[in-house]
Design brief:
heterodimer, A: Arc Repressor Mutant, subunit A, Phosphorylase Kinase, domain 1, 3 domains, 40% helix, B: mainly alpha, Rna Polymerase Sigma Factor, Chain: A, globular
Chain lengths: 475, 185
């Protein structure tokens, strides 16, 4: 047999040769001094290389085990070869993971674009310990991560602060201007829906989101423009009554009919649409804006003014007939009794994760109370046509938050630009955006889109800063 | 051996639910391994996790028939592109090591020693050719020769030779660094 080359010797060491060939090579190596020497060299190089690569094992990940979580990173599947088992292992006492740093969360939220420093200053400050009652002890992990934070802060401390301050000022300014513009356009058309909402508070979860919208600084002029009802909608009389608008004094009609008119514009009374009643009302006039299903009994199907008046009268009669009932529920359900009211249904974590393509995010350190799935129309800002997974959490202080998640379709072209273009405008946020709103009842809501195409909304009856402090716990 | 542990997502005509559950299964099976490979390749844990996520995004968009080599080939391509981008933006691959070494106010001697060793191994790995490095990293993840050949783009018969060369060069580069004083003393 001719001499054996190094490739064959390595194949022998890696167990890649057929049995017969391996036996022949072994026989030659034991008989040939030259090949025997090279075989020993190959074995030494293989062992040494495996040992060196073992040095590069990543730090231990100490995230709490989740259902379906991947195996820890300290146990690489590295059978380098039968003759030379891998010596890859992580050093004992290697750093473990603690709640994410501000950089890590920003990366998660922004898809590694670092485009949204707006929320970074509100994350735990440098060196500040994030309270983590339910997390396992973090032994040696604190130092490297704290240092990592320090490294991050060293790089761009001022830019983050300035960008945050600028974005707040810009959002407030744009929101104020957009509000003024929209008030000037439609103020004379009809009384405000929100005036009615304030007069007749609804028990509907989604109803609480309408005032929230008023508080929300407009994320962009484009969105502010879209939220404003188009002139065509104003021409249709009653439809415009549903536009979300600040309360106005001297409204020509009493609050209750205005409320009914708002409900007419949203026959199903679905929350996601009413998060932005103006969009819903505008959609009746401009169908391309929001493909919400409109039942046959929808008042907008008739002649605008006459139908609107008739339906208002019908709604008023219904309200008068049932004074004890929630006005909104009566007005919304009466025209379409056959249509079931959309709602969340309880499910389990596995089913919820499956509906999100396995991308389910969870909130560490809080108790999961329930997992639900429901139409996106129930969650402000979500796509109405797709399901939303809602995880309801509570903490030891019995505070409760909702973590809503929805999978947004991704384009086949995976470039960042294509992905940004593909985001449905109805979402109101794009990759890198973070929308923080606070309702008058103190309920805050944070919405964002992560790089995996998962739209998320974290909401709870607490100040926005408190809600922000939970972001590092989202895994 | 692990080859073909997961069925191909592209086999048959899976519906959307089949694809997503398949991705979840792939994620469970390969995410840790992908992050490990990408961490060894980039030296940055955050980047490694980001790139691993990107791999699964792509798998979701275009379900692969033979997922294991496909996932790792995409991961290596992404790492390669990321390395080029990082070079363009002046981000050094040693950033992670430097950051960590700056991090500890008074690191223990053994920590310093380990960090120096990591930096030395990374420097030695960086001296290898692209295919040598990738073959070595895939082998460390338990890949068989035919899978390495498919993922890296080598002839199956050339994998043994490539690995032999890669192992020898890695060890020699590391030892050369030690002699120059780059490595741990």
């Amino acid at each position: 047999m001719a001499h054996v080359d190094d490739g064959t010797l390595n194949a022998l060491l890696d167990g890649e040769l057929e049995e017969a060939e391996a036996a022949a090579v072994r026989a030659h190596v034991s008989a040939c001094a030259e090949c025997g020497g090279r075989f020993e060299d190959a074995k030494r190089f293989l062992d040494a290389a495996a040992e060196l690569l073992g040095v590069l094992a990543p730090p231990v990940d100490a995230r709490p085990a989740e259902p379906g979580a991947p195996a820890p990173l300290v146990a690489p599947v590295s059978p380098v070869g039968p003759a030379a088992p891998a010596t890859v292992s992580a050093p004992s006492g290697a750093p473990r993971r603690v709640p994410k740093t501000s950089k890590e969360v920003a990366v998660d939220l922004d898809g590694a674009t670092h485009k949204s420093p707006a929320i970074m200053p509100n994350f735990p400050a440098e060196g500040e310990t994030v309270p983590a009652p339910a997390l396992p002890p973090t032994d040696g992990a604190v130092r490297p991560l704290a240092a990592k934070r320090a490294g991050t802060a060293r790089r761009k401390p001022d830019w983050a602060t300035l960008a945050w301050a600028a974005s707040v000022v810009l959002a407030l300014g744009v929101g104020y201007m957009g509000n003024e513009v929209s008030r000037g356009r439609v103020g004379r058309a009809a009384p405000s829906a929100d005036t009615a909402a304030a007069a007749a508070p609804s028990a509907d979860t989604a109803a609480a989101a309408a005032p929230e919208r008023r508080e929300m600084p407009a994320p962009s002029p484009e969105r502010a423009r879209r939220v404003s009802a188009p002139p065509a909608a104003a021409a249709r009389g009653g439809a415009i009554a549903a536009r979300a608008e600040p309360p106005r004094s001297g409204a020509p009609e009493p609050a209750k009919p205005a409320r009914a008119a708002a409900d007419e514009a949203q026959p199903l009374g679905v929350g996601g649409a009413r998060q932005d009643a103006g969009v819903s009302a505008g959609a009746a006039a401009v169908p391309s804006l929001a493909p919400q299903p409109v039942p046959s009994a929808a008042p907008l199907a008739g002649p605008p003014l006459a139908g609107d008046a008739a339906n208002r009268a019908a709604a008023r009669r219904l309200l008068d007939a049932a004074p004890g009932a929630a006005p909104r529920a009566v007005a919304a359900e009466a025209p379409s009794q056959a249509v079931p009211r959309p709602s969340f249904r309880v499910t389990d974590v596995d089913a919820a994760a499956a509906s999100l393509g396995g991308l389910l995010r969870t909130l560490d350190g809080w108790s999961l109370e329930s997992v639900k799935v429901g139409p996106g129309s129930l969650v402000p800002g979500a796509l109405a046509t797709r399901d939303v997974v809602r995880l309801v959490y509570s903490d030891v202080q019995v505070r409760r938050v909702n973590l809503d998640q929805q999978l947004v379709p991704l384009p086949r072209d995976t470039s960042i630009a294509a992905r940004e273009r593909s985001v449905p405008p109805a979402l109101g946020v794009n990759y890198g955006d973070t929308l923080v709103t606070t309702g008058p009842n103190g309920e805050a809501r944070i919405r964002w889109l992560d790089r995996m195409g998962l739209w998320m909304s974290l909401s709870g009856a607490m100040p926005a800063d408190s809600l922000r402090s939970l972001l590092p716990r989202i895994r | 051996m692990a080859a073909g542990r997961a069925g191909g997502l592209g086999q048959g005509v899976p519906g959307p639910e089949g694809v997503t559950s398949g991705i979840a299964e792939l994620y469970e099976q390969y995410h840790a391994s992908l992050v490990r490979l990408l961490y060894r390749r980039t030296g940055d844990r955050d980047r490694a996790e980001d790139l691993a996520q990107e791999v699964f995004v792509r798998a979701l968009e275009a379900p692969p028939t033979n997922p294991r080599p496909w996932l790792f080939a995409v991961a290596l391509n992404l790492a390669r592109d990321d390395g080029r981008r990082a070079a363009r933006h002046g981000r050094k691959l040693e950033e992670f090591a430097a950051e960590r070494s700056q991090a500890a106010a008074a690191p223990a001697d053994q920590d310093v020693e380990r960090e120096e060793r990591v930096a030395a191994v990374r420097a030695a790995l960086a001296k290898l050719g692209e295919k040598d490095r990738e073959a070595l990293l895939l082998k460390a993840e338990g890949f068989r020769y035919e899978e390495i050949a498919a993922a890296v783009g080598l002839a199956p018969g050339a994998v043994g030779t490539t690995l032999a060369r890669a192992r020898r060069r890695l060890v020699e580069a590391y030892r050369a660094g030690e002699k120059r004083g780059d490595g741990p003393r």
